[in-house]
Amino acid sequence: MAFKMVLLPGSHGEPWANTVREAVPGAEVCSCATEEEAQAAIEDADAAFGTLRRETLARATRLRWLQAPMAGPPAGWYYRELVEHPLVVTNMREIFNDHLGAHIMAFVLAFARGLHVYLPRQARGEWKPGAPLVHLPESTALLVGVGGIGAEAARLLAAFGVRVLGVDPRRPSAPEGMAELHRPEALDDLLPEADFVIVTTPETPQTQGLFHRERLRRMKPSAYLVNISRGAIVLLDDLVAALKAGELAGAALDVYQVEPLPAGHPLWSMPGVLLTPHVGGEGPYLDERRRRVLAENCRRFAAGEPLINVVDKASWF
Length: 317
Prior knowledge:
The strands form two sheets. Strands 8-7-6-9-10-11-12 form a seven-stranded parallel beta sheet, with helices on one face. A five-stranded parallel beta sheet has the order 2-1-3-4-5, covered by helices on one side. The two termini are about 30 Å apart. The chain is of the alpha/beta class and about 325 residues long. The protein is built from eleven helices and twelve strands. The radius of gyration is 22 Å and the shape is elongated. Strand 1 (about 5), helix 1 (about 15-25) and strand 2 (about 30) form a beta-alpha-beta unit. It folds into two domains: about 5-95 and about 285-315, NAD(P)-binding Rossmann-like Domain (Rossmann fold, 3-Layer(aba) Sandwich), CATH 3.40.50; about 95-275, 3-Layer(aba) Sandwich (Rossmann fold). The chain has helices spanning about 15-25, 35-40, 55, 80-85, 95-110, 115-125, 150-160, 185-190, 215, 235-245, 285-305, and strands spanning about 5, 30, 45-50, 65, 90, 140-145, 165, 180, 195-200, 225, 250-255, 275.
């Protein structure tokens, strides 16, 4: 079945239009540079790719599918009218699993081998052996969120001998390398067991501010927090307070409540803290992977088959 798809402003334009045409010969594709163009084109469109604004959605009369251009869009992307609309939303999850899995392991290994202590000494030109170490075969990691990224992290952690626990609201069974899988209500009971608490859950209405001061206090003073997911999940003021109070040993962040992290923020100079500028998902082949997701869903949509990466709109993921 041929269909009409609108490429919304900012969705990369003609190369992506060609992806749709190659996947479904005969599909009508409108690549829109402005919201005015999108509002005119959306009126009789069956599908769209990109960020769909509220006023543009209001013009649609037969829209049935929206492909999000990212895995976890920012807060506000899923507004009330979009959530209540009958269209199906799909996203780009699973394309970052290997890159983010490697980033998680870089943080874990850095803490395990004391690099969070030695790197500042290197910057000062200071030769001073001695740093706290973690023997990984005797350690426990808790993955908060066990989607594709969490599953890849579990596999890699287990290869180093780490005992891996997980909490997730959807996953039916533990992936390779994970010793135990629990529901989110078990989080507070599991936190005291973990040497590494690794946040891989998407930002949803339920996970915003998930790691506040009281929850951080449930971690062991010798434990490390790693967040490669979304900045809104860890309250930075509470994290700074916990680190200053010695309530955990350190933290590694790739995402932040405010980005860029402001100059002069305490985290820049705190001992035991590793920071990267929201680059955990970077790596080769991402555009090819995005195109594959778009092409596969176009093929399925035309054939009337179930789409991949369908989103629970009320939960944003």
